[in-house]
C-alpha cells in the first residue's frame, strides 16, 4: 500500500496510506491517502481522484482559479468590451435612438403576442396546426411600421415551422403581399 507514498499529483504530495473508503451501498472501495498540499494544508483524498487528476490540490487551486476568473470578466478582459453600442458588429446606424429604445419593450411584445395567439385560437393560420409551438408574426415587419408594432391586427399566429420557412424565403424585409403569397403557396389551400 505504500506504492503512492512520495508521489506528486498536481500540488499534492502523498504522505501515507490511511485506509479504505467503502460507499454506503458497498460497491465503492477506494484507498484513502493523506496528502500535503504545496500551500501547507493536509488533506485526505481518494486514490481515483488523485490518479484521474480530478483533485490536484486541497482546494486552493480552485480558489485561485475562481479569483482569476472573477477578474477576467471585467472591462478589457471581457470579450464584449468595446463592442457595445456603435462598436457592435450588429449595430444599425439607420435606426433612430427612439427605435432602439422601443425595440427593448419586451413586456409590450409579450402582451401583443398573447393577444394575437388568443385571437387566432392558438392555431397556425397557414397550416392550421394546433398544440405545437406557436409564434406571433408581424404581417408588416416590426422595423418598418412603428405605429403597427403592437397592433393586434398586424399580427398573425404561425407555428414554428411555418414561421421559419417564411423568413427563410422572404427574409426580414417583406410586405403584406409576400405574406399573402406565402399563405397561398404553403397553406391548406395549396395542399388541397
Automatic annotation (TrEMBL):
Q: Could you tell me which residue ranges the HNH nuclease domain spans? A: 112-164
GO-annotated molecular function: endonuclease activity; nucleic acid binding; zinc ion binding
Residues in coiled coil: none
Species this chain originates from: marine sediment metagenome
Q: What is this protein called?
A: HNH nuclease domain-containing protein
Classification via InterPro entries: HNH (IPR002711), HNH_nuc (IPR003615)
Record-linked Pfam families: HNH (PF01844)
Amino acid at each position: 500500500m505504500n506504492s503512492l507514498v512520495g508521489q506528486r499529483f498536481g500540488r499534492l504530495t502523498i504522505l501515507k496510506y490511511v485506509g479504505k473508503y467503502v460507499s454506503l451501498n458497498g460497491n465503492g472501495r477506494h484507498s484513502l491517502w493523506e496528502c500535503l498540499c504545496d500551500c501547507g494544508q493536509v488533506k485526505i483524498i481518494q486514490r481515483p481522484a488523485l490518479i484521474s487528476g480530478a483533485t490536484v490540490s486541497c482546494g486552493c487551486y480552485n480558489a485561485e482559479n475562481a479569483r482569476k476568473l472573477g477578474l477576467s470578466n471585467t472591462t478589457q478582459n471581457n470579450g464584449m468590451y468595446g463592442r457595445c453600442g456603435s462598436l457592435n458588429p450588429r449595430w444599425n446606424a439607420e435606426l433612430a435612438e427612439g427605435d432602439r429604445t422601443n425595440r427593448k419593450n419586451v413586456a409590450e411584445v409579450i402582451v401583443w403576442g398573447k393577444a394575437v395567439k388568443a385571437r387566432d385560437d392558438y392555431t397556425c393560420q397557414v397550416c392550421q396546426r394546433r398544440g405545437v409551438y406557436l409564434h406571433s408574426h408581424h404581417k408588416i415587419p416590426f422595423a418598418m411600421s412603428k405605429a403597427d408594432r403592437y397592433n393586434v391586427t398586424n399580427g398573425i399566429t404561425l407555428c414554428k415551422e411555418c414561421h421559419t420557412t417564411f423568413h427563410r424565403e422572404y427574409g426580414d424585409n417583406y410586405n403584406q403581399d409576400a405574406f399573402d403569397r406565402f399563405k397561398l403557396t404553403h397553406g391548406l389551400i395549396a395542399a388541397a
